[in-house]
Amino acid sequence: MSDAIDIERWREELESKRTEKDDFFAEHPQSPIPPEERDGFDGLEYFDPDPTYRVTATVERHDDPEVVLMDTTAGREMRYLRVATLDFELNRDDEDLADGSYELAAYQLESPNEEPLFVPFRDKTTGQQSYDGGRYMELAPDRDLDSGDELVVDFNLAYTPFCAYSETFDCPLPPEENWLEITIPAGERFE
């Protein structure tokens, strides 16, 4: 982790967000958990918080973004724009987990908007410890990004799309360019 943060405060904020999400899933009318299953819902599964997976990425902004067609869980296609590439490094203490430089593409829907950057991805936990359709991150920079800017990417905030809980949702699947050949044991689990 290249930027200095208060680890205890970060961990408390992360745990608070997780509790808030569990409450939403258990009680909210728009929860993806089917109503008849909510009484038995006792919270989402998570990997333990690990600041190793909170990294600083260097942004490569694409001035003329390419259209990327993403397949969805319902067999449709959604049009996104590849607006940036995020380059980052992982440096882990565990000898079984490879260090190195990696990149993920960041997207936005094709229509002009102020939505956060959408970063769907797969990693070696996909289909085993996490949802087989991949996981998502949404990054909301506090300003317009330029190439060379830095942006925090916290995999501890990676989440499972709603379609994992109910077929009424249609979710984009991470394109192959966002398939990481490493294990990211951070964020939501889904077994």
TrEMBL record:
It comes from the Archaea. Residues 15-47 are annotated as: Disordered. It holds the Pfam family DUF1684. InterPro entries: DUF1684 (IPR012467). Residues 15-26 have a biased composition (Basic and acidic residues). This is DUF1684 domain-containing protein. The lineage of its organism: Archaea, Methanobacteriati, Methanobacteriota, Stenosarchaea group, Halobacteria.
